Amino acid sequence: MNKRPFLALFVTPAVLAALASAAALAAILQYAFRAYVPGSLDPGGFSLSNFEALLRPLYAQVFVQTVWICLLTAFITLVVAYPLAFALVRTRNVALKSFLLITAVTPLFLGEVVRTYSWIIVLGNTGFINSILMGLGLVERPVQMMFTTFGVVVALVHVTLPVMVIMLAAALSHIDVDYEKAATSLGAGPVKAFLTVTLPLSMPGVVAGVSTAFAWTFSAFATPQMIGGGRVSMISTLVYQLGFASFNFPFAAALSITGIALTFAVLAMAKQAIRPLEKIGAH
Amino acid sequence: MSSIPPDVASQTRPVGVQIDGVTKRFGDATALHEAWLKIGQGEFMTLLGPSGCGKTTLLNLIAGFLEADGGEIFVSGSLMTETPPYDREIGVVFQNYALFPHMSVAKNVGYGLRMRGVPKREIEQRVAEALALVKLAAFGDRKPRQLSGGQQQRVALARALVIRPKVLLLDEPFSALDKNLRGSMQVELKEIQRKLGVTTIFVTHDQSEALSMSDRIAVMSDGRIRQVGTPDEIYRRPLDPFVAAFVGDVNVLPARLERRLGDMATVALGEGRVQVRAETLDGLVPGAAVDLFVRPDAMRFADADGVLAGTVATHVYQGSHVDVLVDVPAARGGRVTVRVPGHEAPGRWPAGAHVSLDFAAGDAVAFASDAK
Amino acid sequence: MRRRLIPARIGERILKVAGWSVVALIVAFIILPAVVVAISAFNDRAILTFPPQSWSLRWFRRAFTYRDFAVGFQNGLIITAFASSIALVVGAGFAFAIDRYSFRGKRALEAMLTSPLVIPHFTIGLGFLILAAQVHATRTFALVIVCHVVLVLPFVMRSVYVSLRNLDGRLELAAASLGARPGMALWTVTLPLLIPGLFSGWLFAAILSFNEFTASLFVTAQATQTLPVAMYNYVREYADPTLAALSVIYIVVTAGLLTLANQFLGLGKVLNVEHAR
């Protein structure tokens, strides 16, 4: 008896799709090591100049700023998402559960443009927040939130929130409520029971959520582009400018490759951090 | 050699299933070591053992869900080893029933017939018969999730039987049912099996279930078949300390082999002498340490000159009988259970009473001691 | 004893109220932009101001009549239909293969296909753009579709994989013991039971593909522009609330689709945040 019927039938399409991704990545990799010929779309010969250029303070600073924004966003998102995920998993009210789930998940499917545009209306100088502040006479002139790191991070937290909630909720739903009950029966108050039992057990989900949030923020383009408005640069916006404003595809490719390397380094570190934690979570 | 032929029942009827030296390994672990077993046509054979003993592996090999690493399996005389499960004509009832949740009861039962291309009219008729057999004639249009556990069990049985299988395999089918329902389902299954005369292999870890239902039992542990025999043989004449300890409760008394005489042997237990069968003492010389296995119901209180002396510790009331736990320094674990009928036991043998214990000569089985 | 119990109970009460207040604030943070967008979409004036002085539906009319949006919508439907359906076939087959079989290169293939979850979309978009340039292909629908298939594949795979995990493997064994050959068991037992997972995987893929922006910005041309790209270009040119009107439609349709999905499929199970019993 053939123990693996349909194997070829089911795997071949996947191989083709994987080849397509691999080809795209290979194309970037190849361009990253080619020279930029100003005024031409075709790259020149082999060159390491793109990577040398990355060391220039201007670009190094964008890297530092990108990592800073990603870390900030990931941790703020964690703090905002945790209570929501906890409520989502623990509430027994079915309608409330559905409401929280839909609320948390819908933004994920709206796309970056719609969400970022909404935040422009909220944060703009004549937008929602400033109108209220000025209407109440709390400020004289609009508070500048557009084109600031603050504005970008607020919108990015909103963008990253759904995926963080999903990952935390998945981790929390695997934790038996009885552990907390056992802690309470042993004399721990509800806060202590949470801090000593549930929180440590959910750490694998926390690390997974933070690292995914980091990767997503790193990938975000519309938000820094539209809210940062060129004054808050991230690697994504830089790649776009290089590609479509100056047609310097080799340098854009080198930036992308370095970005992937950075993302993978962060994910690998998160995986290392998660390893001892998984032993706690195993049951 | 054993004085009980392992396949006494199969000599009187044609062979239904024959397992010839079947071995199964998972990676480095051997789940089944060269199993040999003959099951007569129409026989109800139980594979009994603790979890991980290899009983479910053997069942999966017979069903064709696993491939053996060695040995052959025959069903009704034809070699099955290379046959895929869908050509084996074997009905299986799964532990969780594995009813198809998206099909009605009737569709579930008729599934095997549709796969065989049986004409529609005949399918309807045979499905109706099968549902009547399991007393669910009115339930054909329901979905499995609308049925109780016991009803789902019957549907699974009907589905397996309607294809008129050469062999019926049941994998712990009662483990999900509560105790009362389990009892009535056991009786019902036994009656249906008798009526249809289908060769049945039943897997369980529950020794009382095995004793009450089977024509014969194969006791397994660590991937080996330890003993094959009728329920009475397994209970009264275990050939192996594992079998003796796994099937029913047992008291273990360290003793010494004194001498052998033909089929019988004399064992010294303290000052007393006990006659036991010699068949389980192969290779032992006089003076060797042995363990005497005595069932709680074979133990009795003697007037004064029993072979064991002890102090009553406590009583465990079990309804139809009472277990009197007696501290006996000479026993393994320092304690012996004596099973006596009725509720008067606490009065006759109160806690703290010094008692003398005895047992009938034929009720003890001796094995080489595994204690150092 | 009693005296100690009562303050403890009050403490728990306060904790509960505080907890739910925090959750309410978070929900408000999530919903706020949608509410603000909805208000400004009905604002009569062309400049974003709060509160609106007068109300009108003109921005909705403009959203429906603006040509680039109509073209982007059509392009989006074409691309989404192909990309999500191809991703469904590829992803479902592969999810089945990873669940059931072990084969050489399984891990590598899985890693390659899930990598778009962590590789930035602008990188993938740039990669396909360069790839197209290298083979001297133009930015056609095919290019956009291939790019989208790669991007949404991980979501389809995950959805189908979770459904397969929740499926009792013994059902297929039962079918085999009843005489069903592997293809027949797949067709009569596995596939019907996977339909919710397949459908939700397809739905996720479709929504994500339709809304994908960053990679699309790189791989689309004027003729293949999708709706989010058209919307982005609109914001760069105009500051009126047309986009707010469009966003409202977006939010309503998406939330509606997800509510339906939740009703019929149990979103919680699909997303693995609650367990199948």
From TrEMBL, chain A:
Cellular component terms per the entry's GO annotation: plasma membrane
UniProt keyword Membrane, yes or no: yes
Keywords per UniProt: Cell membrane, Membrane, Signal, Transmembrane, Transmembrane helix, Transport
Transmembrane residue ranges: 58-82, 94-111, 117-138, 150-173, 193-216, 251-270
The ABC transmembrane type-1 domain, residue ranges: 63-268
GO annotation terms (biological process): transmembrane transport
Cellular compartment(s): Cell membrane
Chief location: membrane
Key word Flavoprotein present: no
Topology with respect to the bilayer: Multi-pass membrane protein
Cited InterPro entries: MetI-like, MetI-like_sf
Signal peptide residue numbers: 1-26
Pfam families on file: BPD_transp_1 (PF00528)
Superkingdom field: Bacteria
Family: Belongs to the binding-protein-dependent transport system permease family. CysTW subfamily.
Name of this chain's protein: ABC transporter permease
Species of provenance: Xanthobacter autotrophicus
UniProtKB/TrEMBL annotation, chain B:
Gene3D superfamilies per the UniProt record, alphabetical: 2.40.50.100, P-loop containing nucleotide triphosphate hydrolases
Subunit comment: The complex is composed of two ATP-binding proteins (PotA), two transmembrane proteins (PotB and PotC) and a solute-binding protein (PotD).
Catalytic activity, EC: 7.6.2.11
A UniProt-annotated Pfam family: ABC_tran
Function: Part of the ABC transporter complex PotABCD involved in spermidine/putrescine import. Responsible for energy coupling to the transport system.
Keyword Ribonucleoprotein part of the UniProt annotation: no
Protein name: Spermidine/putrescine import ATP-binding protein PotA
Claim: Transport is one of the keywords in the record: yes
Residue span, ABC transporter domain: 17-247
One BP annotation, GO: putrescine transport
Gene transcribed to yield this protein: potA
A GO CC term attached to the entry: ATP-binding cassette (ABC) transporter complex
Organism: Xanthobacter autotrophicus
UniProtKB/TrEMBL annotation, chain C:
Gene3D superfamilies: MetI-like (1.10.3720.10)
Family as reported in the entry's similarity comment: Belongs to the binding-protein-dependent transport system permease family.
Topological type in the membrane: Multi-pass membrane protein
Highest taxon of the lineage: Bacteria
Principal subcellular localisation of the protein: membrane
Subcellular locations according to the entry: Cell inner membrane; Cell membrane
Name this protein carries in UniProt: ABC transporter permease
Gene Ontology BP annotations: transmembrane transport
Ranges where the ABC transmembrane type-1 domain occurs: 73-261
Stretches that traverse the bilayer: 20-42, 76-97, 117-135, 141-164, 185-207, 242-261
UniProt entry keywords in alphabetical sequence: Cell inner membrane, Cell membrane, Membrane, Transmembrane, Transmembrane helix, Transport
Pfam families per record: BPD_transp_1 (PF00528)
GO cellular component, as recorded: plasma membrane
Keyword Transmembrane appears in the UniProt entry: yes
Naturally occurring in which organism (per UniProt): Xanthobacter autotrophicus
